[in-house]
User: Fold these one by one.
Assistant:
Number 1:
Amino acid sequence: MRLLIRSFAALLLAVSLPLSAAPMHSQFLPPDDLTLRDAEPEQQQLMQVTDYSVVVGAQRQSNQQPIPVTSPLMIRLKGKSLNKGASITQVLVNFDGESKSLKKPIYDDKSKTLTLFYPQAQYRVIIDLLRNDTVYVQFLSYANGHIWADLHTGAVRSR
C-alpha cells in the first residue's frame, strides 16, 4: 500500500512538472517563422492586470518656437506577478499617433515597470479588453536581442 501511495505521488509530481522550458502563456505567442524565439527566454515577466487608469495629459513647451502642444495618452496597469522570478508591478501603455515606427518594449527592473508602445489606433481595442476580460501582460527577452511583449486575454469561450 505504501509503495502504491509513493508511486502515485511520484506520478503526480512528474505530471505537474513542465514538459519543456517554454514560457508560461506561450500559447498566446504568434508563430515564430523567423526562429527568433528558438531558445529559452533570458527573462519573462507575466502579470495579471487587476486595476487600470487612463491618463490624458497636455503639455506646452514654451521655450520652443513654434510652440508645440502635445497631449500624451497613457494607460497605467497594475496587477500581480504570475510566474516565478517575475517582479513586475505595473505597466505603462503609451500611445503614439505620429511616429512611423514604435519604440521597443522596455522593462525597468529597478522600478519594476514595463513600458509598452502602441499605435493610437489600438487604444479602443485595449480599453475594450480591460473592460470585458481578464487581461495578462507578457514580456519576454532573449539572448539574441529579440523582445516580445503583449497584452492578451485568457482563452475565452465563444457564445
Number 2:
Amino acid sequence: MTDKINSYERKRGISSDDVEIVNKVQPAAEVSKGAHEIDTDRVISTAALDEEAFMRDELEVILMEPSNENDAQFCEVNVNGDYRLLMRNGEPQKLRRYHVAVLAQAKQSRVRQKKIVNQDGSMGFQEDNVLSLTYPFQISHDPNPKHGAPWLRKMLANPV
C-alpha cells in the first residue's frame, strides 16, 4: 500500500494594484467641473416626506380596560420592526401615529339579531353585521389635531 502525499503550490494572492475600482470617488474639485446626475427614480416628494413626518408624530393614547375578564390585559403592535407592548389599563401611553393606525384598523365583526314581526304576523330575526374595535382607545393628546382628527375619523370609518 502506497501513501500518496498531496502537495500544492501556493499561487500569488490578489494585489491592490491588480484590482480595478469601478466607482472611484472623485475629488470635489473634479466633480464641480462637470454636471451632476440626479436619479429621479429615488426622488421623494415633499408630500411623501410630510406624510412620513405626520405618521411619526407621537400621540398620547389611552387603551380602555378589557370588558371581558377573558380578554388579554395587553396588546402587541409591531410596525416595520417598531414593536410595542401596550397595557390595557386606562393609563396614557405614548405611541407613534402609525401604531395608532394599527389599533384603529384592528376590528372585530359580530352579528346582532333583532326580533321582527313580518306583515303576515310571523316572527323572525333581522341580522346586522356590527364592527367594533378590538382594542378600544382614545387619544388624550395629538400634537397635530388639525390633521390628526380627520385622519383618525377616516381610519375608524374604514371597515377593513
Number 3:
Amino acid sequence: MKLTDAEVIELLQYSFVRIDGAWFMGLAKTHGIETAWDADVEAWKQFSYVFGKKLRNEHIKEPVWPESFLEAIEILSKVLKIEGREVSLEGDRIVVRVTDCETQKAIAKANIADCGIVTIHTYQGLVRGLFDKDVDIEVEHTQNLNHGDPCCEVVIQRRS
C-alpha cells in the first residue's frame, strides 16, 4: 500500500488529536480528572510554546503583531484539523470562532471535559514562543460548543 502525502497528513492529524485524548483519559482514569486537567494544561502550555518557537526559528523569522500570530493560528489549526474556523480582526481584538473541530468532537463524544482552559493557554504559549517576551496577550474563551453555544469563540487582545 502506498499512501499519498495528503493521506499521511490526514492520518497524522487524526492521530495527534486521538493521542491527546487517549493520554488524558488514561490519566483521568488512573489519577482523577483534576490531575488530568492539570497535566493537560501544562502539556499544552509547553507544546504551544515550543511550536511557536519552531515557527519563529524556521518559518516566521521576524514576527510582527498581529499578522504573524494570525499566520501561526492558521498553521496550528491545520495541524489540529480545525476546519470550521473564522478569524477576524475587530478593532484591536482577534476573534476566533470555530464550528468544526476534531478535538471538540472527541471531547463531546467522551463527555468528560471541555477544552476552553487549554485553548487559552495554547494561544498564550504560541505567543510566548513566537514573540518571546515582546508580546503579552489576554485570552478569553467566550463561547463553547460543548456548553451548547453555536461556536467556540476566543477573544485575544494584546496587553499594553
Number 4:
Amino acid sequence: MDSTQQWFDELFTKNYKRMISIAMRLGFPPEEAEELVQDAFLLLLSKSERFQKEHENPGGFLMESLKNLMGTRLRHNKIIQFVSYDEIPETATTDTYFSSLKDRLPAELSEEDKAVLVARYEEQVPYAELSKRLGISQKQCAQKVFRAKNKLRKIFEEEEKNSNYVK
C-alpha cells in the first residue's frame, strides 16, 4: 500500500463515522448524509498531494468541507421546495419525515437553550426578531445562540468520547 493510500485510509477510518453522525444530527437522512461525507472525502482526495505535504489539519478540512456541502444542499433544497403563501393550507400538519429539532436535542441541554436553537435553526427566526422575543439586544441574542451551540457541541463531543470508550 502506498503512503497516499495509507494516509487517506487513516483519515477515513478516523473521521467517517463522526461525519455521518454530524450530518444525520443536522437532519439529513442516512443516504444523503453518506453522500455528503463521501463528497467531502472526494474533495480531500483530489487535493491529497498538497494536503499530505503542507496542510496541518486535513480532518479540519474534511469537517469544513462537510459543513459547506451541507449548507449548499440545504440552500438548494430550500430553493427547490419554495411554496408561495397562497399554496399553504390553512391547517397545520405534522411533518412525518423530519421530527422537530426540539425532540432530537439532548436532555442535558436547558429548555432555554433548546428554545433558542429551535427558533434560530428550525424556525429560522432572524436575530432581530429573536432578540425582540427574548427582550435582549441583537448582540446578546447572537451570544446566547453561540453559547447554546457550544453547549450542544460539548454534549455531542462527550457522547462521542463515551461511545469510543465502549468500543
